[in-house]
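Proteins fold reproducibly. Take a tokenised chain:

. . .
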Amino acid sequence: MIIVFYDGWCPMCTKASERIRRYDSRNNVTTVSFRDSEIVQEYNLTPDMLEKMSKRLYVYNTSTKEWFDGIHACDVICKNIRRFWWLLPMIRVSIVFGFGQWTYDWIAKRRKIVPSNLCDEHGCQLPQRPKGNE
């Protein structure tokens, strides 16, 4: 079994987690948002780990006790969901030739973040991106 830690503030990530749940016919995958304080406590996520998770998708394999991130996390997810097996050759080629993680990071840096805890009756305050993430 694997646990997918996705960013609940990211609409693209939330949509992907919904697809993972829908297509996981063998119940091999659990998806959780690391933005949920109960999840942080339940899995003892450290501030360092939360910082890393804010930049990349993370998967924890409960059988092997291994962590995977970025393109390698995508690889693990696709291995566990038959409907995504067709993506495995492309992911593997991208890993072998060294552009998979770079491509993953490029996409991840440009995703939209909509923090749910920064909204009030006047609207939502969006966090400022650090310089250099343009």
Observations:
- The radius of gyration is 15 Å.
- The first strand starts at residue 2 and ends at 6.
